[in-house]
Structures are given as structure tokens and as C-alpha cells.
Amino acid sequence: MTSITRNRANVFSAALALMCLTAAPLLAEALALPANARLTREVVKSAASYSAPVAPYAAGLLPVFEVQGRITKQAYRIPQQGITPQQILTPIEESLVAAGFDPLFKCQDRFCGGFDFRFSTDVLPAPDMFVDLFDYIFLTARRMPEGSAASEYITLLVSRDSTAGYVQIIQVTPEGATPLATERGEPLVAQPVITPRQPKGPIGTELETRGHAVLSDLT
Fold first, then answer.
1. Where are the domains of the chain?
2. Which is nearest to 215 in space by CA: 148, 206, 4?
3. What single-letter DSSP state applies at residue 162?
4. I want to staple 213 with a disulfide (CB 3.0 to 4.6 A). Which of 6, 63, 201, 206 is the partner?
5. CA dist 139 to 95, 145, 158, Å?
6. Does domain 29-210 have CATH number 3.40.1000?
């Protein structure tokens, strides 16, 4: 092999190694969605503003940060019965932290402000996004992209109905930054439903022997 050929081979090897090094963070910086999550709606605005909630709704007001940049709104549906919002959110939140985001605010349904919070923040319309007012989780996170003077924001809204889970992702990226991609992880498995043990004898006997009794027909 001539010296010129060897030099070319060395340059190619160095370039390949550099590509591998630079590709690793990009692959790591992705939101971990369940394998069966399906994109139902996407809205992108190159230059717009977004009110990112940073505290619960209280006293008739929703505290927000007004942020500007490239706005990417996405809604996903996960066709799986029995999955909870927290079960959906956990791997996504972990991937956010791994990508360098710091959670600013996290709340759950009534602690967010329930109905008032839901209708004071930006939510994509049904049927693409569904929010159960008694069963949803909201998260706001922020990071400072390298080489940028402006922060990058992301909000997550997770809920479910009787047949599926729903995720809304809103990303605000400053000029020059790239929104996080999404990647599919493991499919979610519904949490087991625990059926209360039914009393085997009269209620009085159950109370005397066990100290409690299950009233299966009480609503």
C-alpha cells in the first residue's frame, strides 16, 4: 500500500470515528415513547410564542413563562388499555433528564388546578389529544442549548381514556437548535388490576376473625 493510499485510509478512519462520536449524543437525545405510540397530529411554527405553565392554576391565574422560538406541537395515541399517565410519563421524563433538561414544574390533575388548568393551557384538539380532567399529569422542563443565548423549553401533557393513553409534546427551540426527536422503546404493559378478596362468610364473622370485611356491592 502506498503512502498516499495509507493517508487516505487514515483520513477515512478518523472521519468515521468522528461521525460515531458525534452521532452518539444525537441518538441519546431523544424522547422515549412506547413502541406502539402513534403520531396523531403535528403542528410546527417557525417563529411563534408559547405560554409554558410553571405553577398550578390559582386565584384565577395560571403562572407561565412566555417563550419564543420554533414551536413544535405533537400528539400521540397509545392504544393500550389499563396504562396510567405516570407509567407513560416515566420513560419520557427519564429521557428528558438524560438529554440535559431540568424539570421546572410537575403536577397532577386536581393539584394542577383541574378543569381551570386544563382549559388555561394550550392543548391540541380532540380526537387527536384527549385529557381526562381527573387523570392527567403535566410537566415543564428547560435546558440551555450549547452555543445559544436562549433556553429551550418542553412541556408534556399525559392522560388516558378507557382504551388508550395520550401524550402531548410541545417543544420551543431557539434559533439554531434542533427539536428532540422521538424514539420507540419497549411497549407498555398494563398494570394488573387487583380484585379485592371477597368475604367467605357472614360479615360479622369476617369482622371478628379478620377485623375487616369487603362490601363488594357497595357503590
1. 29-210
2. 206
3. S
4. 206
5. 13, 19, 9
6. yes
